[in-house]
Amino acid sequence: MNKKCRVLRLAATSMAVMAAIGGSVSAEAQTVDYNSLESIFREPITTSAIGTPQRASDVPANMTIITADEIRQYGSRNIPEILRHVPGIDVVRSGEQSYDVGVRGYQQGFQPRFLVLLNGRQVFLDDYSRTDWNAIPVNIDDIRQIEVVKGPNAALFGNNAVGGVLNIITYNPLYDKLNVANVTTGTQSYKEASATVTRKLASWGGIKVSAGALDEDEFNTELAGPMEGLLKTDPKRRFASADAVFRLTSDTQGELETTYLNSKASGSGFNGLYSENQQEISSFKGMLASQTDYGTLKATSYLNHVLTKFSVINGPGALGINYLTNDLYVMQLEDQFRIGSAHTFRLAAEYRNNAFELYTAEQTVPQQPRISYNTISESAMWNWQIRENLNFTNAVRVDERQENAAGTLWAGSIYTNNDYNQYITGLNANSGLVLRATDIDTFRLTYGRGMQYPSFNETGTVIAASLGGPALFAVSGDPRLNPTIVTNYEFDYDREVKPLFSSIHSGVFYTQNKDIKSFILVPPTFPVVAQITTGNVGNSRAAGLELGLDGNHDGFRWATSYSLANVTDDPSVKEYLHYTRSAPQHSIKLDLGYSWKQWEFDGFGYYVSSRESLRQAGAAIPAPVVTTDGYASLSGRIGYNINDNLTLALSGTGLTRADTIENAYPATQRQVLLGLTGKF
Amino acid sequence: MSTSTLLFLNRWRPLLFSLLHISASLKNAALLAGLFLLSMCPGAYATDVLDITTGLKTLLLVNNRQAEDVRVAIVFDPTNSASKSDAETIKSNVDHGAGVPAGLTVTALLVSISNLSSLSQTQVAFLASGLSNADYSLVSSAASSHGVLTISTGTDCVKSNKCILGVITNPRLEIYYSEYAAKKANIKFSDAFIMLARKIE
């Protein structure tokens, strides 16, 4: 049976099962009206934990929801700086618009463990398994909330959701009226303009159009050598998006969305390298959701087309320029339904095709073979409301991934055609028990197991470049790599402290990582004189805790946290990737804010302990390790509402010193921005 | 019975249960049992602004809602002074805009349980405290035939499938939803709202 038939078979079987059970019907299918629901239940609503709407206080996961008000008060115009405020999240800045975001102790350039979605569509890039934070086509002022889940959540979100998941939720033109424009200028010649306009189409639909442009100078701090100076580039971003949501009938909704983005920036690359990245990304998405007698059926399909120019230093005096195209096509079918009053189910199937083409400027031999993956996934979620204060959620997802290779292998390949014919199956699972023991005490016990599949770069890269004469330098991904399996055990406890108008959050976790992947050196065969490939190099473990207190009262708001993450690597993992101390072991964060009449004052201070990171200016395997001392930093915002529609804001990062050495990459500089936001 | 009294009973329920077992007096046991049951299943209690706000905001999630102007019937028992007082408080709040969500224009009218004919002119029936199970049946019968959304504080009415929604805002905001009553009145909520509410079997 071919793969598409299997997907359809699964969907039909699900519907038949539901008819047999006589499952209770949910009401009209709709995209989620967050505004009205949050207004009713007086807390954020999310679908990111289990795929069905939940109150933030009920989610069976360690989730932080950053609201639109908080985004405004933080004063940041990019998402990583917003994420700095979240306990357990480590943000490393290696350029004006170059960031890596790690979760609970695991940090590296081209962070592969943190899945990033925009309204459920993947914006994480599968080429090198990374997120380019400068290449997300979203206007900061259009973000309703950012949902951060820590720990594996692959049973719901799939590949690469092994360290955590970030879902950026924007306003819905069917329910929300948002017309906003912003202009911002500042140091480093920062210039940004963005706007979002929504229009209702009678009672049957809504359309939203967003666009933005950003230009600034890169930090003027010391690089690791003149070659890196060739890679340093001033960041730029241009994007546009259009989103239409419409009611076809009272039971059926549809959505069409398209985005385009062009960006460039320089900063961290994989394996401690400094790189320049240019991206051109377009996407198309369609969604149809309908209430039926079998529950709420939803079909989503999207295509991401990514063209990347990735420039990096390959060796002494050698600049490598790679052109890579990646086409990702995803089709998802899901059914959400309730049986009785206590059981909620979500069944889903997904088909994913990921195709890559690589061309290297200095390539001596053509990129062969061309790689693509077909993945079929089936998942199921069951939420059981055992009692009014006790909730049990289980989710499982099975992936079947087939790697395909087209074309003839080059003569010097160390792999055979048969090596590229790989079939991998993976099991992902999440389980969570939530007990609201009293009105003010909530306990969570969670388990997560996620598969991190190899990226194109790890399995399919073939680069063979001349070193002069017949000698070649070759990099080949290993198509036989095993996926990394990440398992997490966690216990969380939240308590409201009403006399202090605050809530305490605490949690302990233990994470195991099995079969970690890395680039490794292997003995070459002439004419190849230096051969790099990939391999599963060992295991790593992390244990830690998070403590936090947050609250607000009478115009004041506060949040503070302490997080500890202790990572232990197997010797070979430590040698190649050095996760131990890749992120600071200790992190303390403090947010204070006050609103008074038309004014808003907000300050954010944090301290992180020392870190040890990979850093090189060549093609060393393993890369040298550089230690960065711990440091403290301060940022803030002063906002003034000129009237109901206009707000002027002065904000800044790294305020305590001109330069801050955050990591082994070039130092970051103090930045001050002045912005004007208008709503109309 | 006031909200604070109910909260007190809820907190001391385990103690009350123990007292029930050790009490030698049938009269005392009956009294304690009554208090215990009352604390377990809060009936309708005096309505505050948050209850009104929460109840009216659910209108925003009714899929086949036609109008922005909403007439709300506040149903009360004229023979019960507490019920009449609660109804007048609700009406006063609504008339002054307290608890009325943005996007809706709400007109409130007092409707006696002994004369429910005017329910047909309204879209929502908000039940004041002090109504009995028999009263719930009367309201349900009159409201469902005209597609009127019935809302009460507490869970008595909704758990008997006579009201569509039951609202509790203390200690934690919960909304109970009767699918049976909703279907009877042909009222459809968004599926997201139903997933978040406590559904009555």
SSE layout and pairing:
The complex is a heterodimer of chains A (680) and B (201).
Chain A: H1 3-21, H2 34-41, E1 45-46, E2 54-55, E3 62-67, H3 68-74, H4 79-83, E4 89-95, E5 98-103, E6 114-118, E7 121-122, E8 143-150, H5 154-157, E9 164-170, E10 180-186, E11 190-201, E12 205-215, H6 226-231, E13 236-249, E14 252-268, E15 274-292, E16 295-315, E17 318-339, E18 343-360, E19 370-387, E20 390-406, E21 423-436, E22 441-452, H7 456-459, E23 462-468, E24 471-476, E25 484-497, E26 502-522, E27 528-553, E28 556-569, H8 571-576, E29 586-596, E30 599-608, E31 611-614, E32 625-628, E33 631-641, E34 646-653, E35 659-660, E36 668-669, E37 671-679
Parallel strand pairs in A: 6-9, 24-27
Antiparallel strand pairs in A: 1-2, 3-8, 4-5, 6-7, 8-9, 10-11, 10-37, 11-12, 12-13, 13-14, 14-15, 15-16, 16-17, 17-18, 18-19, 19-20, 20-21, 21-22, 22-25, 23-24, 25-26, 26-27, 27-28, 28-29, 29-30, 30-33, 31-32, 33-34, 34-37, 35-36
Chain B: H1 3-11, H2 13-22, H3 26-40, H4 49-57, E1 69-76, H5 81-95, E2 105-112, E3 124-127, H6 133-144, E4 149-153, H7 156-159, E5 165-168, E6 174-178, H8 179-185, H9 191-196, E7 198-200
Parallel strand pairs in B: 1-2, 1-3, 3-4, 4-5, 6-7
Antiparallel strand pairs in B: 5-6
